[in-house]
Design a protein that fits this description.
This protein is mainly β and about 110 residues long. It contains one helix and nine strands, in the order βαββββββββ.
Length: about 110
């Protein structure tokens, strides 16, 4: 079962293996991190195959909203750092603006 929906990961943000381990622990299943960062688009709904997302706070200006957490606001004036947002079953996340994100999905066997 997913826990700690928004988790700071500044200390491991540049280590994909550690990010996958952290996201997998938070989500409760084996997750893999997509290799490329992408920019969300305004009013984009996150695909249901995504289990968690890595959000770069100083990336594109925007926000991630939805679920039972406070909006995660992004952009050049939002400071540095990254967070993992776990998407719980039945939740829908949406982007406002163009936040910089990477997706975690269940690892394929």
């Amino acid at each position: 079962m997913a826990k700690n929906q928004v988790t700071p990961v500044n200390d491991i943000a540049h280590d994909d293996r550690k990010l996958e381990e952290k996201a997998s622990d938070l989500y409760g299943a084996d997750l893999e991190l997509e290799s490329e960062e992408t920019s969300g688009t305004d009013f984009e709904i996150v695909d249901s195959s995504v289990c968690a997302i890595l959000v770069r706070k100083d990336g594109g200006a925007g926000a991630v909203t939805g679920g039972a957490f406070e909006n995660v606001v992004t952009g050049p004036t939002q400071g540095t750092g990254s967070v993992i947002i776990v998407i719980k079953s039945g939740e829908t996340l949406m982007f406002y603006g163009t936040p910089s994100v990477r997706y975690f999905r269940r690892r394929r066997s």
